[in-house]
Every structure is written in C-alpha cells, then in structure tokens.
Specification:
Number of strands: 0
Distance between the termini: 57 Å
Number of helices: 5
Order of helices and strands: HHHHH
Radius of gyration: 19 Å
Low-confidence stretches: 19-31, 141-145
Length: about 140
C-alpha cells in the first residue's frame, strides 16, 4: 500500500516508511566464526565440544562474538558499548535470553530454567557467560544418565 490515509484534519494516519539503511560494512575477518552476516544471527552454529572446553573468559569472548553477529557490529563497537558494574559489556535481558537459548541449541535442550535465574545474571556479558559456564557441566551429568 503506497498511499497514506488521512485523518479529518488532513494529517496522515500512519508514519511514513523509514528510508532503508545499509547494514554496516565489515570485512569478512571482522565477523565471528559461524556468523554469516548475509544470513543473520539465526545462522549461528556453535560446537558443543568447543563450548564444553571453554573457560569463563573464553565464554565471554564467545558471547561477544554472538552479539557482533546479532547486532551486526564490529567487536570494537560491542566492547565499547555501555559497561556493566562487573566491567563487561551491558546487555538487555531479551538479548541474554537469546544468547542462552542459542547456546542451548548446541546441547539440544535448554541450559537453564530462566525463572530460576537471578536477574543480575542476565544484565552483562560476564553474567551470561558465567551462567552458561555453570550450566554446561550440569547438562553433561544429566546427559550421561
């Protein structure tokens, strides 16, 4: 629909469509492994074995790489964003839930019951990385039974 309906006063009823904006142009090396910017964040593939072997700092790096892909930003932009009190980049809870569920897909099940998670754990890269790191061993024990 290209026409815009008008109210009795003559003002348009709908906001005009915003002009399209180009996605940031990053070099191929600027994207995280497993992140194809043309396919978006839904194309992220994580390796279960690699996730199991990660230390907490490595998990923080992985989370930031996922944020790069999700936000289509450079690592510098992700790192230079607002910082949480723990010193790592701040994230909103919906993004944290996306990160946890994306990592959980590598294990073919949810990693945590979000209703039991402290809200503070979902507010920073460090909190989410610690939560995931703690949840992975529990999944391994459950999977071995």
């Amino acid at each position: 629909m290209t026409e815009n309906m008008h109210s009795a006063s003559g003002a348009p009823l709908f906001f005009p469509a915003p002009a399209p904006t180009a996605a940031p142009q990053l070099s191929a090396s600027g994207w995280a492994a497993g992140c194809d910017p043309s396919q978006g964040p839904s194309a992220i593939r994580l390796d279960r074995g690699a996730l199991q072997a990660m230390t907490e700092p490595e998990m923080q790096q992985q989370v930031m790489e996922m944020l790069m892909c999700l936000r289509r930003q450079s690592m510098q932009d992700v790192v230079n964003g607002p910082a949480h009190a723990d010193g790592t980049p701040e994230i909103d809870s919906m993004t944290a839930v996306w990160v946890v569920s994306t990592v959980g897909r590598a294990f073919d099940r949810p990693l945590v019951r979000l209703s039991n998670v402290r809200r503070e754990s979902l507010r920073s890269v460090g909190g989410v990385a610690a939560l995931i790191r703690q949840a992975i061993p529990a999944q391994l024990v459950i999977g071995a039974a």
